[in-house]
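Researcher: Next sequence.
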Amino acid sequence: MTALPPPTDEIARLVELIGPEAALRLVEARGGTRIYVGGRDSGVLAEIVGVDAAAALHARYGREDLKVPIARPWRVLCYLAMGLSQEAAALKAGCSRNTVQRAVAEFGHPGGRQPRQSSSQLDMFDKTG
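Model: Next structure:
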């Protein structure tokens, strides 16, 4: 898998506990909901994040509910790091392209790349003409 960007504050503890790939799978599958760790959802949880990550969650949370963050800005950055376009990242994260652009403006583009500007747009500060 592509190296994922550093986590945003919203998802940092979860990424530290189970790793970025498992955290991304969890927020994609259950973001914005609660999942009961170590109980009736433990099999489902292991299917989503893997046995080791599920065990780490159980060790940390016991038999409690875990509120899974949506982590939309981090997800957007992950999708961009995977090579998706801004439009595809927006679609996959369930947000607008403006949200993608705000995430890039706030956290930077993964890999330090700048968003590509349209070649048809004139530079209003160009003094060559």
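Model: The helical segments are 12-18, 20-30, 42-49, 51-61, 72-81, 86-93, 97-107. Residues 115-120 have pLDDT under 50 and may be disordered.
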